[in-house]
Amino acid sequence: MSTAGKVIKCKAAVMWEANKPFSIEEVEVAPPKAHEVRVKIVAAGICRSDDHVITGALVIPLPIILGHEAAGIVESVGQGVTSVKPGDKVIPLIVPYCGECKSCLSPKSNLCIRNDISPGTGLMLDGTTRFTCKGKAIHHFMGTSTFTEYTVLHETSVAKIDSAAPLEKVFLIGCGFSTGYGAAVQTAKVEPGSSCAVFGLGGVGLSVIMGCKAAGASRIIAVDINSDKFAKAKELGATDCVNPRDFKKPIHEVLIEMTGHGVDYAFEVVGRTETMSAALACCHYNCGVSVIVGVPPAAQKVSFDPMLLFTGRTWKGCVFGGWKSKDSVPKLVADYMKKKFVLDPLITHRLHFTKINEGFDLLRTGKSIRTVLVFQDS
Questions:
Q1: What is the mean pLDDT of residues 2-23?
Q2: Does 140 participate in catalysis according to the annotation?
Q3: d(CA 293, CA 316)
Q4: Is residue 52 among the annotated active site residues?
Q5: Is 68 a catalytic residue?
Q6: Helix/strand/coil (H/E/C) assignment for every residue in 225-288
Q7: Which is the catalytic residue, given 49, 76, 103, 157?
Q8: One of 98, 104, 112, 175 is an active-site residue; which one?
Q9: Is 212 annotated in the active site?
Q10: Predicted local confidence at residue 299, as pLDDT
Q11: Catalytic residue among 52, 140, 154, 284
Q12: What is the pLDDT of residues 153-188, one digit of tens each?
């Protein structure tokens, strides 16, 4: 029986309050309106950005259905949708692509004006939500909301991908891999023979290492306070691994001593103001480039010596690896299918989505790189 045009009742992980476990609830998912798409989620990843909302570091209206890194199958489409049809395999896009605004039209930018990253309304473009639970409206997250069996996205926030792509692998291209890999090859444009430092060895940080290696960096220094992650970092291309807790002096001084004049490129993939400052300071004083990849904590400011910039360093931000999402995601999936890069080493755990709280425990204790949540009972 077709569900098109009807409300779907399904299971979702609802976050009612900050710093509380997810609650698996029955939710109602409204049909897609004009230029919207309803998607059956097949696989979703647990990303640190989701945890930032839980802890209050990223302030978004509650209650909410989190999740933003996923892959699924189109269930139905609203009026006027032309880029996808029911049955298509798709990846939700945290950075939409309208193709009309200044950011989409410029080759220098990728953050579409229709994004819901900042200020984070938790609503669809028409100012309403498609989720209800126990009679209450439930907010969306970053225009995606993937911790649910079904979700609704605007057509600008969904990309059709290769029908042969394994969704339990390529979901990573929806956020973690693309963000990290792109930070190196797209935003920083790492050059062959250069030196790099990567602060934070989660799924995104390891993807930065993969990007640095693909770009031909000769030295890639991995930095993390969890030495258990060093073996994986070296497997994916790190040449050196450094734990700041092993030294009495500031980590940027350690890296400058290791390299002589500082690294050519430094990437902050933690989301902490202290590491953002350290990543800037460890760059070459005149031509070093530092890229902020980790989501910054809310209501915090960075203090740094302006001389760090005056001498010539460049400080950049990076959202979704600088990729034009709707164009680039299908191409990245095609590259994966051609074995131009691997994703398997980043996926360390597989859980049914009803065990989502267990997955977040693995993230917080540093035991997982990426946990994939699956929605089939297998």
A1: 93
A2: no
A3: 9
A4: yes
A5: yes
A6: CCHHHHHHHHHCCCCEEECHHHCCCCHHHHHHHHHCCCECEEEECCCCHHHHHHHHHCECCCCC
A7: 49
A8: 175
A9: no
A10: 61
A11: 52
A12: 999 999 999 999 999 999 999 999 999 999 999 999
